[in-house]
Write a structure and sequence with these properties.
The structure holds two protein chains of two kinds. By secondary structure, chain A is of the alpha/beta class. Chain A has four domains: 2-112, Ubiquitin-like (UB roll) (Roll); 121-139 and 148-290, Alpha-Beta Plaits (2-Layer Sandwich); 323-358 and 536-597 and 619-688, Rossmann fold (3-Layer(aba) Sandwich), CATH 3.40.50; 378-522, Dimethylsulfoxide Reductase, domain 2, CATH 3.40.228.10. Chain A contains 19 helices and 31 strands. In chain A, strand 13 and strand 14 form a beta hairpin. In chain A, helix 7 packs across helix 18 (623-634) and helix 8 packs parallel to helix 18 (623-634). In chain B, 37% of the residues lie in helices and 12% in strands. In chain B, helix 3 (29-40) packs antiparallel against helix 4 and helix 4 crosses helix 5. Chain B folds into two domains: 8-68, Arc Repressor Mutant, subunit A (Orthogonal Bundle), CATH 1.10.10.1590; 80-165, Glutaredoxin. The longest helix of chain B has 12 residues, at 29-40. The chains are: A alpha/beta, B alpha+beta. Chain A binds chain B through residues 187-194, 201-204, 432, 434, 713-718, and chain B through 23, 45, 48, 57-64, 66-68, 70, 72-75, 109-112, 122-123.
Chain lengths: 718, 208
């Protein structure tokens, strides 16, 4: 399809919108209401362009221009919104670059948009990263002719604990309303009133927790703001670090914004393959722990009390403590959200000292990597014909996977990609999309996904798969029929079925997958369980699993909190003074995953990079550096001394080059997978105590309320 | 006590007018709102939730639709709900003075009901009776046109006595098969492009 943009001829795929055609031609169109992953509606009218098309005679030949002999272009009489207009064969498009009419129309629209927009920029959190600010500068008149009082409305209207609305700033682009309707499928936000009185509100008594934070990202102005990060810094003051979230095994792309060494804000970053443009509320708002009550120096137990010490003193304390033990007695346990490099370092140390007590937690005791039909990716889930979720509470285990399933229900339309990025307006996406709940079967406990599923079967975890193979109820029969009859099917397995699953479970699942042609996506227990399983980080011959840490002669516990100590020397490596740390002999300060470089492996088997955010953590160290200190205390030469040597060792062991991964990550199939009994069950829990944002602590308790005008009388025009 | 609990046949009748699909069910929103408002004078939060549940949507959506139309009320209205047109034509012809007069004499503000429960007032946009400005509508009964101070006084006096004068023009406007606007009696009124008859002479001050 040939399209002419500002006189330049382009070859574009059919279905391209006019706005994408202009961007593809290297041009620019201002827009507020269009969003890459939402339906285009043409609400803001900023993306006006002039368009014209050739017209055909009845015999199929083009109407020719008498003067030039070329097909005559019939221009629309007025500028058109380019986000809702499809580019067609031979279409001519003029953007502001080549059309004065368009430039004037856009400046005029900008004037309308700014009529009631307050001049809050100096105090607005969005300032510096505001689409309206940028576009007003680029396309506006530069001066206001509006000499009257602007609309006044509520400026501090909390929609929920996390999101605060400034009604004056809203430009009614409807992105947030469409987001809730189209993405999480919750119709909780809408326009109230009309015309100049329109404002955004909910009648549901707040926004549902789960995915509400995304509306702060997509708001083109400062109307919807992240209440956790509100007034914590200006956009140009933040140190922006693009990294990967490791709260669950999805591995969403995020940007960590730190200021003065504090983590103030987390925003979503686009990754078409993983999280599109969305992240969950836990990932966005649950970062309080990164900056609060951090351990910054090692602690050593002296006379029964933990006292601050230097690393040298801590190493000496470990050395002294280890005189009562053999080096092989030291159990080594790490959290399963540790990076692959850290896992490599710990495995190498365990090999070097010969300790059999090695484990990572949380994990399951079954490996489902070798399933027929290959591994399922998140894009596979979004474009599947049917999904069967068994024993998973996705809200706790992998929230973004839930959004990808909902994407599947509304047709699995992934916006196409152009040289300028994801399509700004994908015309196949429509407002209020029709959903097909019959494509989703949920087997297990009642969860948030339950209400979206057409087939629901209550079941407890351990026999759910067996019952599905030999269905005994109508619902299970329907689910099995869905599996058998559909073309592209994905089986998603969660904690309820994976806890205690064994080899026979894998065989049974493999048989079901072969029979139905389904791909299997097992949600790993920890953020990087899938990567760490490729390393020999499970109890070796005679080794104690993490569940029996209390029986270990001596233990090094990295960022895990079992609440008990080992029999002998207990070394805890953690970012906070946890219950376990309080019982320890030596506490070494750890960095959080926001401050690490390394690689994590998500539930698809995708390698994703972590970057180091500029957080102040005192003398805290990651596991690799901490293990060199432990090695020194044990009197062994540390086999891995830094990130580079860990990556070199990983290349040797796994045949895998880490360190220079593409931004979207790469899928890697690990050759080996280590499993061993865990002796405890894993209960997935996304929001932990330390993640709760402590908004209250920011307000002094003795604050006097300011004298305020009485409440406005209830009612109004409606 | 829910409003529609004992009106299943009515609810079924309303839903039967729309396609039997999730989208179709949502279409029943407007008649359900109208039903509640006609019975109770306004739609409160409980009724909002009830209608949302019936339509398979959320209260937010119901409120969004409801607040779009100035004819749905979220607050109680009086026995006589006076809707004064405040758009340009009426405004030029003195609707602002009419409004001030009503608010002062009845001692009632928008959103309130006068102490005797009789009156509530509302400013509305153009009701399409510009030729007879200023005008107001009482409840859904009809248009009171050319409301001069003396006519206003006459209307209020009758309303205080609970003797509502007949409106100058009834609503809703009914249209016959020939496309002519007709009164309840069947008498054709107004003009149409097919029957350009002489319009009745306008009586200043009306007959109220």
């Amino acid at each position: 399809m040939k399209v002419h943009v500002d006189g330049v001829e382009l070859e574009l795929p059919a279905g391209t919108s006019a706005i994408d055609a202009v961007f593809e031609a290297g041009g620019d169109v201002p827009y507020f209401c269009a969003h890459k992953y939402l339906s285009p509606v043409g609400a803001c009218r900023m993306c006006l362009v002039e368009t014209g098309s050739p017209r055909k005679e009845k015999d199929g030949s083009f109407v020719l221009d008498d003067a030039t002999g070329q097909p005559k272009i019939f221009w629309f009489p007025k500028p058109m919104a380019s986000c809702t207009m499809q580019a067609t064969e031979g279409m001519h498009i003029k953007s502001a670059r080549s059309s004065e009419v368009v430039a004037k129309a856009q400046a005029g629209m900008m004037e309308f948009t700014l009529l009631n927009h307050p001049l809050d920029c100096p105090t607005c959190d969005k300032g510096g990263a505001c689409e309206l600010q940028d576009r007003a500068f680029e396309y506006g008149y530069g001066a206001s002719r509006f000499g009257f009082d602007r609309r006044h409305a509520d400026k501090h209207y909390p929609l929920s604990d996390f999101i605060i609305l400034d009604q004056e700033r809203c430009i009614h682009c409807k992105r947030c309303v469409r987001y809730f309707e189209e993405v999480p499928g919750q119709e909780v936000l809408d326009f109230i009133e009309r015309g100049g009185h329109t404002f955004i509100d909910t009648e549901e008594g707040g926004l549902p927790t789960g995915f509400q934070g995304n509306i702060a990202d997509i708001c083109p102005v400062g109307a919807l703001l992240d209440n956790v990060a509100r007034f914590r810094g200006r956009n140009w003051e933040y140190d922006h670090t693009p990294t990967t979230c490791t709260l669950c095994s999805v591995g969403c792309s995020i940007t960590v914004d730190a200021r003065n060494g504090r983590l103030e804000r987390i925003v979503a970053r686009e990754n078409r393959e993983v999280n599109e443009a969305w992240i969950c509320d836990a990932g966005r708002f649950g970062h309080a722990f990164a900056s609060e009550r951090r351990l910054t120096v090692p602690l050593v137990r002296v006379d029964g009390e933990l006292q601050e010490a230097s690393w040298d003193v801590a190493i000496a304390a470990i050395r002294a403590g280890m005189t009562r033990h053999n080096a092989t007695d030291l159990a080594l346990y790490l959290n399963a959200d540790s990076t692959l490099e850290e896992g490599v370092a710990l495995e190498a140390l365990a090999d070097a000292v010969g300790s059999p007590h090695v484990d990572h937690w949380p994990r399951y005791e079954v490996s489902l990597d070798a399933m027929p039909n290959g591994a399922a990716t998140l894009s596979d889930v979004a474009t599947a014909d049917a999904v069967v979720v068994i024993g998973a509470d996705l809200g706790e285990e992998a929230p973004i996977l839930e959004l990808r399933i909902l994407e599947m229900l509304r047709g699995g339309l992934l916006p196409p990609e152009y040289a300028h990025g994801t399509a700004i307006a994908d015309l196949r996406l429509v407002e209020r999309p029709a959903r097909k709940p019959e494509k989703l079967a949920v087997i297990g406990k009642e969860t948030r996904l339950w209400q979206h599923a057409g087939i629901r079967a209550s079941s407890n975890g351990h026999n759910a798969l067996e019952r599905l193979s030999r269905p005994d109820t109508a619902e299970l029969q329907a689910a099995l029929k869905l599996l058998t009859d559909s073309e592209k099917v994905i089986i998603i397995l969660g904690a309820d079925v994976l806890n205690g699953a064994s080899g026979s479970f894998a065989a049974q699942l493999s048989e079901l997958a072969t029979r139905t042609g389904a791909k299997v996506l097992a949600i790993p227990a920890g953020a990087n369980s899938k990567g760490l399983a490729a390393l020999n980080l499970v109890p070796r011959e005679g080794g104690l699993p993490f569940a029996r840490v209390a029986d270990a002669p001596a233990a090094f516990i990295s960022r895990l909190d079992p609440g008990v100590r080992a029999r002998g020397l207990t070394i805890v490596h953690d970012s906070h003074l946890t219950a376990t740390a309080r019982l320890a002999d030596v506490v070494l300060p750890a960095v959080t995953n926001y401050e690490k470089r390394g690689t994590t492996v998500n539930l698809e088997g995708r390698l994703l990079e972590l970057e180091q955010a500029a957080l102040s953590a005192g003398e805290a160290a990651d596991l690799i550096r901490t293990l060199t200190a432990v090695s020194e205390a044990l009197g062994v030469r540390a086999p891995v001394r830094g990130l580079k040597s860990a990556q070199a060792l990983a290349e040797q062991k796994l045949g895998l080059r880490l360190g220079e991964l593409p931004e979207r990550g790469v899928i890697h199939a690990f050759r080996s997978s280590h499993v061993a009994p865990t002796e405890q069950t894993h209960v997935p829990h996304l929001w932990t105590e330390r993640m709760q944002p402590s908004i209250q602590t920011l307000i002094p308790a003795n604050l006097q309320p300011l004298p305020m005008l009485g409440a406005a009388p209830v009612g109004g025009d409606d | 006590m829910t409003y529609f609990a004992d009106k299943q046949s009515l609810v079924a009748d309303i839903f039967s007018r729309y396609p039997d699909s999730p989208q179709g069910r949502r279409s029943a929103l407007m008649p359900l709102l109208r039903e509640v408002q006609d019975a109770e004078g306004f739609v409160n939060g409980t009724r909002l939730d009830e209608i949302a549940a019936l339509c398979g949507t959320t209260a937010t959506e119901v409120r969004s639709v409801m607040s779009f139309y100035s004819t749905y009320h979220t607050l109680p209205t009086g026995k006589y709900h006076l809707q004064v047109c405040s758009t340009v034509m009426c405004s030029l012809a003195g609707s602002d003075e009419l409004w001030d007069h009503l608010v002062e004499t009845l001692d009632v503000q928008p959103g309130e009901v006068s102490p005797d429960g009789r009156f509530s007032v509302q400013k509305v946009e153009c009701l399409g009776s510009c030729g007879t400005a200023p005008m107001m509508q009482i409840n859904d009964d009809g248009y009171y046109e050319n409301v001069t101070p003396s006519k206003c006084a006459r209307i209020l006096e009758s309303l205080h006595a609970d003797l509502q004068p007949l409106p100058d023009n009834p609503v809703p406007v009914t249209v016959n098969a020939e496309g002519r606007q007709v009164l309840a009696s069947g008498e054709a009124i107004g003009a149409s492009i097919t029957g350009l008859g002489q319009l009745p002479p306008i009586t200043p001050g009306g007959e109220a």
